[in-house]
């Protein structure tokens, strides 16, 4: 199975690194990129073949992964369309709906849309996936196998849910970093140095997430276990509740999902 990446940016590199660790052969992976420097780095780091032009890279490929910026995808798809035969096309370009991409590809419908997230760069990503109806179960399994090289995957039957996935997991790392920033700032204001604040904040967030992932109990129960009556945690949570922090977080995520829908409309007008 030959897999060709169009675009060799950070997410493409994360996928390639994960695939090689999972046992994909280096000679089964190709990359098309217009940057001489990027191609040189990819060849040196991964020992895979790179191209400047689409047509020779697509020849003989079974899967094509579109890893370019959303604003570039219309042009790339137009160039790609004449070279497509029966390849599966996987798009990791945020916001571009499958039907719009299919239209740009001249009606080609073997399309899987994926929303990965940046923890894929450390093999702990999560990718939401949607396939057009003409994609077979075997092709979906192949697409899943590629994305599982850098983390977990989940499929949705309704593409509208991809906007929710974008708002939760696609944008989610930024929310986590924002909260960690707040923990660090509070620690420093209370007298710790920056190194101590970073260690406590990162390790606390990592440990709590790991504990939750390994527990059968729901998150509310785990939170309650840390919250003693009249204690420090209860005081902090009461302060957050008084400030309606949870409601504001939910509203922020809803606004992100709304923006995802808007971007889909804007980008799909081409």
Average pLDDT number: 95
Give the H and E element order.
Answer: EHEHEHEHEHEEHEHHHHHH
CATH-defined topology of the largest domain = Rossmann fold
**Percent of residues in beta strands?**
5-15%
Main sheet characteristics: 8 strands, mixed
The percentage helix is 40-55%
Structural class per helix/strand content? Answer: alpha/beta
How do the strands line up in the largest sheet?
Answer: 3-2-1-4-5-6-7-8
The number of helices is: 12
Cα Rg: 21 Å
Q: Tell the overall outline.
A: elongated
CATH superfamily annotation of the largest domain: NAD(P)-binding Rossmann-like Domain
In the CATH classification, which architecture of the largest domain applies? 3-Layer(aba) Sandwich
Straight-line N-to-C gap: 32 Å
What count of domains describes the coordinates? 2
- Topology, number of strands: 8
CATH class of the largest domain: Alpha Beta
Q: List segments where confidence is low: pLDDT < 50 over at least 5 consecutive residues.
A: none
Q: What is the oligomeric state here?
A: single chain
GO biological process, one term: L-proline biosynthetic process
Subcellular location: Cytoplasm
Main location: cytoplasm
Pfam family, one: P5CR_dimer
